[in-house]
Structures are given as structure tokens and as C-alpha cells.
Amino acid sequence: MYICICKGIRESDVQELGKAGVTCPKKLASALELDDKKNCCGRCIKNISKFVALAEEQSSCLQSSILG
Ligand code: FES
């Protein structure tokens, strides 16, 4: 499912970043090029907390599967 029309970002893209440990807002925005004001409407950078939550969900899933 697409969560950003401007950049064509899918939910799975953010989840993959979360699995790779990218969960901080600045790093997520940079990795997804949301900090690039060209070709962005600005909606996603305003809602970066939703991206963080999605990434953290995957990060904690990975941690619990490693720790058992
Ligand atoms: S919909 Fe994501 S920046 Fe526009």
C-alpha cells in the first residue's frame, strides 16, 4: 500500500527501514528523501511520526524474534 503519493513510498519501504534499524525521524526522512523539498507536497514530513511508528513496530518485532 502506498503511503506517499509524491515519492511513491510504500508501507513496506518504511517497514524495511525499520528492520534495518532506521527509526529516528531525521534518518527516516533522509532515507525516504522527504527532506528534499522538491517533488514533495510536505504532507509526509508533517506526519513523520506515523512513519516512525511504522518503522519502530518492525524494529521491535525483529528484536523480539532475536531475543525470543
Ligand atoms: S504525499 Fe508524501 S510528500 Fe506528498
Instruction: Kindly report the spatial arrangement of strands forming the biggest sheet.
Output: 1-2
- Strand % is 5-15%
Ligands present: FE2/S2 (inorganic) cluster
Class derived from helix and strand content = mainly alpha
CATH class: Mainly Alpha
Average pLDDT over all residues: 90
Query: Which bin fits the share of residues in helices?
Result: 55-70%
Report the end-to-end length measured between terminal Cα atoms: 29 Å
Number of helices: 4
Mass-distribution shape: elongated
Number of strands: 2
Give a verbal description of the structure.
The protein is mainly alpha-helical and 68 residues long. A hairpin with a 4-residue loop joins strand 1 and strand 2 (9-10). Helix 1 (11-19) crosses helix 4. It has a two-stranded antiparallel ribbon. The chain has one domain (2-67): Arc Repressor Mutant, subunit A. It has four helices and two strands, in the order E-E-H-H-H-H. The protein has helices at 11-19, 25-31, 43-46, 48-67; strands spanning 2-4, 9-10.
